[in-house]
Every structure is written in C-alpha cells, then in structure tokens.
Amino acid sequence: MPSAHGVALFNELPAEPVLLRLLTCMNAPGWATAVLAGRPYPDAESLLATAFRFGLVLSDDDLALALDKHPRIGERPKGADREAAHSRSEQSGVDAQDADLAARLHAGNLAYEKKFDRVFLIRAAGRSGPEILAALTERLSNDPETEAGVVRDQLAQIAQLRLGVLLDELPDAALEAS
Q1: CA–CA gap between residue 153 and residue 163 (Å, rounded)
Q2: Where are the domains of the chain?
Q3: Quick one: 8 exposed, middle or buried, by C-beta within 10 A (0-12, 13-18, 19+)?
Q4: d(CA 175, CA 178)
Q5: What pLDDT score does 88 carry?
Q6: Mean of pLDDT values over 70-80
Q7: Helix, strand, coil share of the chain (percent; to 5)
Q8: Angstrom distance (rounded) from CA 104 to CA 34
Q9: What CATH number has the domain spanning 4-177?
C-alpha cells in the first residue's frame, strides 16, 4: 500500500501539477479532474478506490483519449515519457523473444481492432504473455457493449496501479523540487 506521506502530499500539492501527474496514470481529463476534486483523501485506500470507481464510468471521449496512450500488447513503446515507462514495465511478462507468441498477439490485436475499432487493452502487469493471449482470444467473443465495460475495468485497474506508483514517488519528487 502506498505511503501515508504520499497521500498527504497528493492532498496538499497545488492542483495543476497533481492533475498533470494524474493524466500520466490515465490520459482521461474527466477522470483526472474527478479524482482531483475528491481531495482531501483520508488514506491511500480511499484514493485508489475512488480512482477505480471513476475509471469504471469513463465517458466515451475519455475512453478514446486514454486508449490513445496505450500501445498494442507486445509492442514496447520507445518514448521516454512516464506513460511509455509504465507500459514497458507493465508488459514485462510478454517475452519479446518468443516469435510465435509475438505473431499470435499481433494477429489477435489486428482481429480485435477490426472488430472493436480500438486497441486491445488489458492490465498486463502480473500476467504472462500466454495469459494475455488467452484473455485476448476470449474477449474477441464479447459483444461491443460487454467489451466496453471490460475495457473500462482494465483501464481502471491500470490507473490504480499507476496511481499507487505515483503516490510512492511523490515524497521523492517533493524533496527534489525543494
């Protein structure tokens, strides 16, 4: 669980820098604004639960913006920004040297994009490549409405994980800024 000091800093810092950091957890302005508006949070559990709850009810516009920041599963982003670093870390369970898995993920990604007109998204952290492929294959049988709910749930889980990291990093960032 993230530190109480990180939550205290989250509550105390000016809105603009906190909002910018929230957008690195999920690039969804409505979500970030709603999480920010809930300050002050009594503890990390409350903050993370609120972030998750708001992730489940993303608007279609926020959903599209959030998905734009996520690479295809199996394709590591090359950027140096926080979102790229998060994605590389989260996808570490996908073995980039497994050519068969890579080909199957690529084919699954294309089939998913053709069916749902968006990138396949899953909370990859803690999952192996074969587990991700199995989930991708299973989710291809969803109807669009069901899949939209699954995607929001996965985004909310990813944002929750990233927010936990942010809370752990805030005390160090505050020290560097002073």
Answers
A1: 15
A2: 4-177
A3: middle
A4: 5
A5: 45
A6: 70
A7: 70, 0, 30
A8: 38
A9: 1.10.3330.10
Q: Which amino acid, one-letter code, is at 54?
A: F
DSSP run (H or E) holding 167: helix 144-177
- The H or E element spanning position 51 is helix 44-56
The string over 108-138, giving b where at least 16 C-beta atoms fall within 10 Å of a residue's C-beta and e elsewhere, is bbeebeebbebbbbbbbeebebeebbebbee
CA distances from 49 to 41, 124, 127, 170 (A): 11, 20, 22, 19
Contact 27, 159 (CB under 8 A): no
The answer to whether 126 and 93 have CB atoms below 8 angstroms apart is: yes
- Residue 50: band (very low, low, confident or very high) from pLDDT cuts 50, 70, 90: very high
